Structures are given as structure tokens and as C-alpha cells.
Amino acid sequence: METIKDIARICGVGVSTVSRAINNHPDINPETKEMIMQVIKEHNYIPNNSARNLKRSESKAIAVLVKGITNPFFNDMIGIIEQETQRKKYSFILQRVEENENELDVAIQLVKEKKLKGIIFLGGIITHSSENFAQLDVPFVLSTSDIVNEEDNKAPLWSSVSVDDFAESYKMTDYLCKAGHRKIAIIAATKGDESIGKLRLEGYLKALGNNNIRPDKSIILHMEENKDSYSMETGYRLMKKLLKERDKFTAVYAIADSLAVGACRAITETGAVIPRDCSVAGFDGLEIGTYYNPSLTTIRQPVEELAKVTIDLLFNIIRKNGQHKKVVLPGELLVRESTREI
Amino acid sequence: METIKDIARICGVGVSTVSRAINNHPDINPETKEMIMQVIKEHNYIPNNSARNLKRSESKAIAVLVKGITNPFFNDMIGIIEQETQRKKYSFILQRVEENENELDVAIQLVKEKKLKGIIFLGGIITHSSENFAQLDVPFVLSTSDIVNEEDNKAPLWSSVSVDDFAESYKMTDYLCKAGHRKIAIIAATKGDESIGKLRLEGYLKALGNNNIRPDKSIILHMEENKDSYSMETGYRLMKKLLKERDKFTAVYAIADSLAVGACRAITETGAVIPRDCSVAGFDGLEIGTYYNPSLTTIRQPVEELAKVTIDLLFNIIRKNGQHKKVVLPGELLVRESTREI
């Protein structure tokens, strides 16, 4: 098998000249180029085969499909998953799924094209039926997304790992109630959300109920479809709106830290002081929550563990060392500077 | 070509049962499984071919190689590059490069394995020779990394896009000098850095010189190799160290916003107020800089434009619509709440 160096030697030119010829570079004599291309053709040299070492005998890859990549929380997850994947000598394909796309169709297409060994769905999926999932014939793991599983009693066809978003959200809201807050606003996902956002809202409502607090719709703010995302900017904008109802709440719970940071900024800009004038809480446990002024009360998701369990579950199946299972990891309520008892 | 549905029909079982057989799932009758596997074999059914539609005739992919993925700035870049790649119907492979790995070797290997159409190097590379680069025989773009190009006069063998890190860093330092600061500490990259970190430090030193300020080594802090990263945590820790020399500076310039945020937190925890007691400036223009308390003075890198130009340059070469070029985009000095005149 010829390498680019062999071709250069045969042609009596430098490697960079061969590269210029291959890459259709303008800075090369046309005759030289023709000569090089002729040699390449004669020797059946395939440019892509220039690798010095072939470390792996087989091309192995897994893909991560992400819906809702805007939440910085997923960036941390992706970083760790990608690192673990490479440690296992697999390539890592990152695929965004648009809001209006069916992630299963995308996955099936990708498996075919890239000969994937496995798939991780990050966020998103919640309402697909088992029958749909069965069409995906490589192992897959649902990571940080929960599923309404129709067949809970059977051994599952896939693995999943997440915190219990409902229970953790309940925990946060209940903490705020026990701290004396009776008027707790929430910055929630879109109204049509069928995923994590829905579970976190339900946890909030349940905790209010158990503390004999009637939900006040005027302080339940939803993101807008096709406009808002899990970003600081959205938190800032929704909080500006909420501030028009300033007398209706003593605490704000945003269902993501990114939203909470934006909300904090909006409150601070009015001259109010957090938590003296208003408590703010988030969810996720982003690094920024530790370093923000004030530091942010939140539910910490065990991001490292979530990512590692995701990879372990997937590779157990790929290597036929285990069977699918559902793993629920505990979140942790971190009470920091941004909330107080009243 | 049989699909998984055909196999299920032929076997007289459900699709999910076929899937279980393929995936070596324990919850299936061994005889049923054997029967299914036999049918699969007879029909030459390849599980991976179950895609309902074959949207693309050819498998096309580009890869992004990242060194130093810890800086959140790269996450924004990656997100946009990935989105643009998918818009062009290419797959997107993300590959981390470890500190001790040669990114060119990784790239050459990856081109071979994945039949890549192009490569983007994000961060990192700066000191490789053109001869080394010439061995990479697919088009590539160096994004947000600057290169010491030995052959500046020839038409380049690759494209690059970045801000002028030296000039932008000079701009920030000069602004602090003109605001009356003569004692400006810096949180810089590792001492051995040969990349962006080095350029930013040089810009700082040059600006001090032009303002007749002698650099004070005791307030030039470097990250530690194999320990520190472009994270808030590192900024926080280095600032704690720097605070022992509290009388030696009136301003701190951190070469990344992530570091600056950590530094702000460390200063605030001493009871000092930013910018009254100390000015703090960053670099990058992360979203958090807008929403932090106080909002952060920084150099905004045009992240969207950087990512889009990166993709445009690469696809111009892939599609033979243009030739390689070096693009330098302007950064923008954003003076916000964290710095003041003294």
C-alpha cells in the first residue's frame, strides 16, 4: 500500500506538492499536478489511506443523539461521555435532533450509515412506544431522560439512567415551603413539554399541594415553544415578565440553573438583593452555581456518575456482559446563599 | 432487502422479539431465538439495514478535533459548528485530543477510519510544521488557533480563522492602563503554553511596556500543567493565591471569562466589592459575563461568526468552490460593571 510519501518519492516532488495536487490547490504547476494525479491513479493510491499506523482493526463508533442541547448541563455530560468513549477506543458521533424531528428515525438512519455499535439518547425522548424502540437493532441507553414504559414488568429492551426528576423537584419545592415560603413562582418548560420539564413541574405542584398551598397560575411561567431555551437569556427575560407580579411571590424556583442565573440578574438589576428581598433556586448543579454571586441553591445532578453509568450500561450490552436495566441516581439538595428562611 | 419487520413476519413473531434475539436479550425463549437467528441467516438480513429510508446515497462526515475542551467557550463553538454541519447533511464526529497526543496523528488515523471529507482543529495546534500538515490529505481548517506559518508568502495549505489573540489581549490591557491601573495582575495559561494562552500573555506584556509599566512577576499567575484548566474552579483557586499579594494590584485580567468568574467569586468572598476594591476583566465573551453579578468586562470573540466562517471555509474547499485562506475576525472590548477607572 502506497503512502503519500511513496507517491512523492515516485514523482520526485515533496509531500506538500502531492497534497496540493490532491486537494486541488491553485498553487501548483498544472503539468506537475497532472503527472502526480497520473501516478496516483497508476498506483491505485487512495489518499485516505495515508495513515501511518492502523491502530484498530475495525471501525467502531457510538453516537449520542441530543435534543435540547441548549442546556449547558448537557455540555458537561457530553464531555464526560465522549472521554469515556475514547477510553474504550470507540469513535464518538454527536448528532443534534431538531425539535420537529423524530429521534428514532434519526437513530435508525445513523445506525445504517455509520455502522454504529450503540446509541445514547440524551434528553428528549419520553413518549415513544416500545414497539417503536424495537425497530432500533443496536443497544441503546436513555440518559437523563425518563420514559413512560408500557412494559415495566418485562425485562426492558433498553437501559436508562437519570435522577428522579419528579422527586428531586418535589424536594426543592418542599424545602422552600418548609423555609416559610408560601408564594413560590416557577420558571418552567414549555406548556407542551412531555419530558424532564413536565416532571419537574409536576414535582413542584405536588409539593405545593402537600404543603396546603394552592398553585397560583399567574406566577407559573412557561417557556415559549420555538423561542425560548434553557439559557440565561430566557431566564432573564421570563423573570423580567414575572417582576410585574412582584408582590405575588417571595421565592422563584427555576427548573434549570441556567434559567436561575438569568433570573438572579433580572432581580438584581431592580436594586433588590437576593436572598433578602427574594429567594432564587435552580436545578442541575452547574459549576456556575458555586461561583455566582450569590451562590445558587440547587439540586445537584451527579453529572459524572450519570455519564459514567450511561457508558457502562451501553458497553455492558455491546460486550454482552450484562442486560439492560434502569438506573435512578439520587440528586442532592444544595442550600447555598440564594435562598433564605422567611 | 428484508427489514426487521419482514423477519418478524416470516418468523411469525413480533418485531420486538426479533430485536431481542438480535440483541442477545435474556428475556426470550432459546428455541424462538434460534429459529429467528436461522431465518436471519437464511435471508442474509443485516440488522443494521433496518433503516426505513435511505436519505443520503453516501456516508459523509467531517470531524472536529479539540484540544483543551475544558474552556466553555469551545462548547458554544462546537454547538454551532455541529448545527451547520448537519445543515449540510454531513455527519459530525467529535474527537478529543489528549494533551500528550499529537493531533496530526489522531487526524490522519481518523481520516482513514471514518473516510472523512474534512477536519476542523479547534484550539491547540500552533507549532507544527507545514511539512507535517501536508501529510493530511483532506481539507482542514484551524479554528480559533493561530499558527506560526513558516511559509506565509505562499498560498497556504490550510485555512484558519481566529481573532488576533495578541492584539485583542493588548487592547484589554491597554484599556486597564488607560483607566489608571498601573498594577495589573494576570491569570495566564501554563508556562509552557505555545498556543492562544501564550499570545494573550504577550499582548498583556506588550501593552504594559507601551504604557511604561514594568511587569511584576509576583502578580503574573500561571496555570499548572496537568492540573489546572480553563475553568471557574481554577480561576477561583489561583485568585485565592493571588490575594496573598493583595496590595500589589488594583486590577486582575484573566485570559478567559471562565477564569475571571472564579476570580470574582474569590474576591467577593473576602468581603471586597468589585469593581470598587478591585477591577476584574476576562476574555471570550461567554454568556455568563452578561448575567454575572457584577457583569464582566471582557473581549467578546464573535463565536457565531467564527463557527460559521470555519464551516464556510471548509466546505468551500470540499466542494472546490474556493481556495484556502486565513481569516482574522475582530474581537470587541465590552466594558461592563466589573472594571472602573481609578
TrEMBL record, chains A, B:
<dbReference type="InterPro" id="IPR028082">
    <property type="entry name" value="Peripla_BP_I"/>
</dbReference>
<dbReference type="Pfam" id="PF13377">
    <property type="entry name" value="Peripla_BP_3"/>
</dbReference>
<dbReference type="Pfam" id="PF00356">
    <property type="entry name" value="LacI"/>
</dbReference>
<feature type="domain" description="HTH lacI-type">
    <location>
        <begin position="3"/>
        <end position="56"/>
    </location>
</feature>
<keyword id="KW-0678">Repressor</keyword>
<dbReference type="GO" id="GO:0003700">
    <property type="term" value="F:DNA-binding transcription factor activity"/>
</dbReference>
<dbReference type="InterPro" id="IPR046335">
    <property type="entry name" value="LacI/GalR-like_sensor"/>
</dbReference>
<keyword id="KW-0804">Transcription</keyword>
<protein>
    <submittedName>
        <fullName>LacI family transcriptional regulator</fullName>
    </submittedName>
</protein>
<dbReference type="GO" id="GO:0000976">
    <property type="term" value="F:transcription cis-regulatory region binding"/>
</dbReference>
<dbReference type="InterPro" id="IPR000843">
    <property type="entry name" value="HTH_LacI"/>
</dbReference>
<dbReference type="InterPro" id="IPR010982">
    <property type="entry name" value="Lambda_DNA-bd_dom_sf"/>
</dbReference>
<keyword id="KW-0238">DNA-binding</keyword>
<keyword id="KW-0805">Transcription regulation</keyword>
